[in-house]
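Figure S7 source data.
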Amino acid sequence: MRDGLEIVQKSMLEADVSYSVVQDFMGHVSEKALGKRVLLSLRPNEELVRIVHDELISILGPVDSSLHLKSEGPTIIMLCGLQGSGKTTTCGKLSQLLKEQDIKPMLVAADLQRPAAIEQLHVIGRQLDIPVYSEADNKDPVKVCQNGVAKAKAEGARVVILDTAGRLAIDDELMAELAKIDKKVGPDQVYLVVDGMTGQDAVNSAGAFNDALELDGVIMTKLDGDARGGALLSVKHVTGVPIKFIGTGEHFDALEPFRPEGMASRILQ
Ligand code: GDP
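C-alpha coordinates for the predicted guanosine-5'-diphosphate complex:
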Protein backbone atom coordinates (compact mmCIF):
# COMPACT_ATOMS: atom_id res chain seq x y z
CA MET A 1 0.00 0.00 0.00
CA ARG A 2 2.90 2.34 0.73
CA ASP A 3 3.92 2.16 -2.94
CA GLY A 4 0.40 3.06 -3.96
CA LEU A 5 0.33 6.04 -1.59
CA GLU A 6 3.67 7.25 -2.91
CA ILE A 7 2.42 7.09 -6.49
CA VAL A 8 -0.68 9.09 -5.57
CA GLN A 9 1.42 11.68 -3.75
CA LYS A 10 3.80 12.06 -6.69
CA SER A 11 0.93 12.33 -9.13
CA MET A 12 -0.74 15.08 -7.10
CA LEU A 13 2.46 17.08 -6.74
CA GLU A 14 3.03 16.79 -10.49
CA ALA A 15 -0.51 18.02 -11.03
CA ASP A 16 0.47 21.17 -9.10
CA VAL A 17 -1.45 20.55 -5.92
CA SER A 18 0.35 22.49 -3.20
CA TYR A 19 2.56 20.51 -0.83
CA SER A 20 0.63 21.23 2.36
CA VAL A 21 -2.66 20.23 0.71
CA VAL A 22 -1.11 17.00 -0.53
CA GLN A 23 0.16 16.21 2.97
CA ASP A 24 -3.24 16.82 4.45
CA PHE A 25 -4.91 14.75 1.80
CA MET A 26 -2.51 11.82 2.18
CA GLY A 27 -3.17 11.84 5.93
CA HIS A 28 -6.92 11.46 5.33
CA VAL A 29 -6.48 8.80 2.70
CA SER A 30 -4.08 6.71 4.82
CA GLU A 31 -6.52 6.83 7.70
CA LYS A 32 -9.40 5.72 5.50
CA ALA A 33 -7.33 2.99 3.89
CA LEU A 34 -6.33 1.62 7.29
CA GLY A 35 -9.92 1.81 8.50
CA LYS A 36 -11.08 -0.16 5.48
CA ARG A 37 -8.26 -2.64 5.89
CA VAL A 38 -7.09 -2.11 2.36
CA LEU A 39 -4.06 -4.29 3.00
CA LEU A 40 -6.25 -7.29 3.66
CA SER A 41 -8.27 -6.82 0.48
CA LEU A 42 -7.56 -8.89 -2.61
CA ARG A 43 -6.48 -5.95 -4.74
CA PRO A 44 -5.11 -3.35 -2.33
CA ASN A 45 -3.98 -0.89 -4.99
CA GLU A 46 -7.32 -0.87 -6.77
CA GLU A 47 -9.06 -0.32 -3.47
CA LEU A 48 -6.66 2.51 -2.66
CA VAL A 49 -7.26 4.21 -6.00
CA ARG A 50 -10.99 4.09 -5.33
CA ILE A 51 -10.56 5.66 -1.90
CA VAL A 52 -8.33 8.40 -3.35
CA HIS A 53 -10.75 9.10 -6.17
CA ASP A 54 -13.76 9.29 -3.84
CA GLU A 55 -11.89 11.49 -1.41
CA LEU A 56 -10.89 13.88 -4.22
CA ILE A 57 -14.46 14.10 -5.44
CA SER A 58 -15.71 14.81 -1.97
CA ILE A 59 -13.15 17.59 -1.42
CA LEU A 60 -13.70 19.16 -4.84
CA GLY A 61 -17.49 19.17 -4.40
CA PRO A 62 -20.23 20.11 -3.88
CA VAL A 63 -21.43 20.66 -7.43
CA ASP A 64 -23.02 24.08 -7.65
CA SER A 65 -22.87 25.90 -10.94
CA SER A 66 -26.07 27.83 -10.31
CA LEU A 67 -25.73 31.61 -10.49
CA HIS A 68 -28.45 31.84 -7.84
CA LEU A 69 -30.47 34.41 -9.74
CA LYS A 70 -33.02 36.31 -7.67
CA SER A 71 -36.60 36.31 -8.81
CA GLU A 72 -36.89 40.07 -8.26
CA GLY A 73 -34.56 42.85 -9.30
CA PRO A 74 -31.16 42.43 -10.86
CA THR A 75 -28.82 39.82 -9.47
CA ILE A 76 -25.42 41.44 -9.13
CA ILE A 77 -22.44 39.22 -9.93
CA MET A 78 -18.98 40.58 -9.20
CA LEU A 79 -15.94 39.02 -10.86
CA CYS A 80 -12.55 39.57 -9.31
CA GLY A 81 -9.07 38.17 -9.83
CA LEU A 82 -5.56 39.03 -10.88
CA GLN A 83 -4.91 40.82 -14.15
CA GLY A 84 -4.88 38.37 -17.03
CA SER A 85 -6.76 35.69 -15.09
CA GLY A 86 -9.61 35.90 -17.60
CA LYS A 87 -12.20 38.10 -15.85
CA THR A 88 -13.24 40.11 -18.88
CA THR A 89 -13.42 37.03 -21.09
CA THR A 90 -15.46 35.28 -18.39
CA CYS A 91 -17.92 38.20 -18.36
CA GLY A 92 -18.56 37.33 -22.01
CA LYS A 93 -18.84 33.62 -21.28
CA LEU A 94 -21.34 34.10 -18.44
CA SER A 95 -23.32 36.49 -20.63
CA GLN A 96 -23.46 33.90 -23.37
CA LEU A 97 -24.65 31.30 -20.86
CA LEU A 98 -27.38 33.66 -19.65
CA LYS A 99 -28.42 34.55 -23.19
CA GLU A 100 -28.92 30.85 -23.87
CA GLN A 101 -31.46 30.96 -21.03
CA ASP A 102 -33.13 34.02 -22.56
CA ILE A 103 -31.71 36.30 -19.91
CA LYS A 104 -30.05 39.48 -21.11
CA PRO A 105 -27.40 40.69 -18.68
CA MET A 106 -25.77 44.10 -18.43
CA LEU A 107 -22.02 44.39 -18.08
CA VAL A 108 -20.37 47.09 -16.00
CA ALA A 109 -16.82 48.16 -16.85
CA ALA A 110 -15.32 48.71 -13.41
CA ASP A 111 -11.75 47.84 -14.35
CA LEU A 112 -10.38 51.35 -14.42
CA GLN A 113 -6.76 50.19 -14.05
CA ARG A 114 -6.19 48.73 -17.45
CA PRO A 115 -6.99 51.35 -20.12
CA ALA A 116 -7.98 48.76 -22.72
CA ALA A 117 -10.34 46.90 -20.39
CA ILE A 118 -13.33 49.20 -20.95
CA GLU A 119 -13.04 48.93 -24.72
CA GLN A 120 -12.53 45.15 -24.45
CA LEU A 121 -15.84 44.90 -22.58
CA HIS A 122 -17.59 47.05 -25.21
CA VAL A 123 -16.28 44.75 -27.93
CA ILE A 124 -17.75 41.78 -26.03
CA GLY A 125 -21.03 43.65 -25.60
CA ARG A 126 -21.25 44.32 -29.34
CA GLN A 127 -20.39 40.70 -30.19
CA LEU A 128 -23.07 39.35 -27.88
CA ASP A 129 -25.52 42.20 -28.38
CA ILE A 130 -25.76 43.08 -24.72
CA PRO A 131 -25.51 46.49 -23.02
CA VAL A 132 -22.27 47.60 -21.41
CA TYR A 133 -22.22 50.38 -18.84
CA SER A 134 -19.05 52.48 -18.61
CA GLU A 135 -18.04 56.01 -17.68
CA ALA A 136 -15.12 57.51 -19.53
CA ASP A 137 -14.03 60.05 -16.93
CA ASN A 138 -15.01 58.50 -13.64
CA LYS A 139 -12.00 57.30 -11.64
CA ASP A 140 -14.06 55.79 -8.83
CA PRO A 141 -14.98 52.15 -9.50
CA VAL A 142 -17.47 52.10 -6.60
CA LYS A 143 -19.44 54.95 -8.20
CA VAL A 144 -19.27 53.33 -11.62
CA CYS A 145 -20.66 50.08 -10.18
CA GLN A 146 -23.40 51.91 -8.26
CA ASN A 147 -24.41 53.89 -11.33
CA GLY A 148 -24.29 50.76 -13.48
CA VAL A 149 -26.52 48.86 -11.08
CA ALA A 150 -28.97 51.79 -10.94
CA LYS A 151 -29.14 51.80 -14.73
CA ALA A 152 -29.66 48.03 -14.83
CA LYS A 153 -32.53 48.43 -12.35
CA ALA A 154 -34.08 51.20 -14.40
CA GLU A 155 -33.85 49.11 -17.55
CA GLY A 156 -35.14 45.95 -15.91
CA ALA A 157 -31.99 43.87 -16.51
CA ARG A 158 -32.13 40.60 -14.57
CA VAL A 159 -28.39 40.26 -14.14
CA VAL A 160 -25.55 42.76 -13.81
CA ILE A 161 -21.97 41.54 -14.09
CA LEU A 162 -19.25 43.76 -12.63
CA ASP A 163 -15.86 43.44 -14.34
CA THR A 164 -13.46 44.70 -11.67
CA ALA A 165 -9.80 45.62 -11.85
CA GLY A 166 -6.96 43.20 -11.30
CA ARG A 167 -3.26 43.68 -10.72
CA LEU A 168 -0.27 41.65 -11.78
CA ALA A 169 0.23 40.72 -8.15
CA ILE A 170 -1.77 41.06 -4.96
CA ASP A 171 -1.54 44.50 -3.37
CA ASP A 172 -3.35 46.22 -0.53
CA GLU A 173 -4.75 48.97 -2.72
CA LEU A 174 -6.47 46.48 -5.01
CA MET A 175 -7.91 44.54 -2.12
CA ALA A 176 -9.16 47.71 -0.46
CA GLU A 177 -10.84 48.78 -3.71
CA LEU A 178 -12.55 45.41 -4.17
CA ALA A 179 -13.60 45.23 -0.54
CA LYS A 180 -15.15 48.69 -0.92
CA ILE A 181 -17.13 47.63 -4.00
CA ASP A 182 -18.23 44.49 -2.15
CA LYS A 183 -19.41 46.55 0.84
CA LYS A 184 -21.02 49.51 -0.95
CA VAL A 185 -22.55 47.80 -3.96
CA GLY A 186 -23.49 44.56 -2.19
CA PRO A 187 -23.15 41.99 -4.98
CA ASP A 188 -25.26 38.86 -4.60
CA GLN A 189 -22.50 36.62 -5.90
CA VAL A 190 -18.75 37.26 -5.78
CA TYR A 191 -16.66 34.97 -7.95
CA LEU A 192 -12.92 34.70 -7.98
CA VAL A 193 -11.50 34.09 -11.44
CA VAL A 194 -8.22 32.14 -11.24
CA ASP A 195 -5.81 31.27 -14.02
CA GLY A 196 -5.41 27.49 -13.90
CA MET A 197 -2.00 27.69 -15.55
CA THR A 198 -0.44 29.57 -12.64
CA GLY A 199 -0.27 26.56 -10.32
CA GLN A 200 1.07 27.47 -6.92
CA ASP A 201 0.61 31.21 -7.42
CA ALA A 202 -3.10 30.63 -7.82
CA VAL A 203 -3.22 29.36 -4.26
CA ASN A 204 -1.50 32.41 -2.79
CA SER A 205 -3.72 34.85 -4.64
CA ALA A 206 -6.86 32.87 -3.78
CA GLY A 207 -5.92 33.11 -0.10
CA ALA A 208 -5.55 36.88 -0.31
CA PHE A 209 -8.84 37.39 -2.18
CA ASN A 210 -10.62 35.09 0.24
CA ASP A 211 -9.35 37.12 3.20
CA ALA A 212 -10.50 40.43 1.68
CA LEU A 213 -13.86 39.40 0.23
CA GLU A 214 -16.70 37.08 0.98
CA LEU A 215 -16.37 34.79 -2.00
CA ASP A 216 -19.28 32.72 -3.26
CA GLY A 217 -17.47 30.72 -5.87
CA VAL A 218 -14.41 30.19 -8.00
CA ILE A 219 -14.09 30.05 -11.78
CA MET A 220 -10.84 28.53 -12.96
CA THR A 221 -9.80 29.48 -16.49
CA LYS A 222 -7.31 28.14 -19.04
CA LEU A 223 -7.86 24.49 -18.24
CA ASP A 224 -7.84 23.77 -21.97
CA GLY A 225 -4.03 23.68 -21.91
CA ASP A 226 -1.66 21.22 -20.29
CA ALA A 227 -2.43 22.26 -16.74
CA ARG A 228 -3.54 19.20 -14.80
CA GLY A 229 -5.76 21.32 -12.61
CA GLY A 230 -4.18 20.48 -9.27
CA ALA A 231 -4.40 24.17 -8.38
CA LEU A 232 -8.17 23.71 -8.19
CA LEU A 233 -7.79 21.38 -5.25
CA SER A 234 -5.54 23.83 -3.43
CA VAL A 235 -7.78 26.80 -4.23
CA LYS A 236 -10.80 24.86 -3.00
CA HIS A 237 -8.89 23.97 0.17
CA VAL A 238 -7.97 27.62 0.79
CA THR A 239 -11.33 29.24 -0.01
CA GLY A 240 -13.82 26.51 0.86
CA VAL A 241 -16.30 27.89 -1.71
CA PRO A 242 -17.74 25.92 -4.63
CA ILE A 243 -15.88 25.74 -7.93
CA LYS A 244 -18.56 27.00 -10.26
CA PHE A 245 -17.14 26.71 -13.76
CA ILE A 246 -13.97 26.00 -15.62
CA GLY A 247 -12.81 27.93 -18.66
CA THR A 248 -11.63 25.76 -21.51
CA GLY A 249 -10.78 28.23 -24.26
CA GLU A 250 -10.96 31.82 -25.40
CA HIS A 251 -14.39 31.63 -27.03
CA PHE A 252 -17.60 32.57 -25.28
CA ASP A 253 -18.88 29.01 -25.31
CA ALA A 254 -15.73 27.65 -23.65
CA LEU A 255 -17.18 27.58 -20.14
CA GLU A 256 -18.15 24.32 -18.50
CA PRO A 257 -19.99 23.68 -15.26
CA PHE A 258 -17.47 22.16 -12.88
CA ARG A 259 -17.62 18.40 -12.49
CA PRO A 260 -15.46 16.91 -9.72
CA GLU A 261 -15.32 13.42 -11.30
CA GLY A 262 -13.56 14.58 -14.46
CA MET A 263 -11.16 16.76 -12.49
CA ALA A 264 -10.30 13.98 -10.01
CA SER A 265 -9.28 11.72 -12.90
CA ARG A 266 -7.27 14.52 -14.46
CA ILE A 267 -5.37 15.23 -11.26
CA LEU A 268 -4.58 11.53 -10.79
CA GLN A 269 -3.49 10.99 -14.42
P1 GDP B 1 -8.52 39.90 -17.28
O1 GDP B 1 -7.32 40.80 -17.23
O2 GDP B 1 -8.66 39.11 -16.02
O3 GDP B 1 -9.78 40.60 -17.65
O4 GDP B 1 -8.21 38.79 -18.40
P2 GDP B 1 -8.77 38.63 -19.89
O5 GDP B 1 -10.20 38.26 -19.89
O6 GDP B 1 -8.37 39.82 -20.69
O7 GDP B 1 -7.95 37.34 -20.36
C1 GDP B 1 -6.55 37.31 -20.51
C2 GDP B 1 -6.18 36.37 -21.64
O8 GDP B 1 -6.54 35.04 -21.30
C3 GDP B 1 -6.90 36.67 -22.95
O9 GDP B 1 -6.01 36.51 -24.01
C4 GDP B 1 -8.01 35.62 -23.00
O10 GDP B 1 -8.38 35.30 -24.32
C5 GDP B 1 -7.34 34.46 -22.32
N1 GDP B 1 -8.29 33.51 -21.70
C6 GDP B 1 -9.30 33.77 -20.82
N2 GDP B 1 -9.92 32.63 -20.45
C7 GDP B 1 -9.29 31.61 -21.11
C8 GDP B 1 -9.47 30.17 -21.12
O11 GDP B 1 -10.32 29.57 -20.45
N3 GDP B 1 -8.61 29.48 -21.94
C9 GDP B 1 -7.64 30.09 -22.68
N4 GDP B 1 -6.86 29.33 -23.44
N5 GDP B 1 -7.45 31.42 -22.67
C10 GDP B 1 -8.26 32.18 -21.90
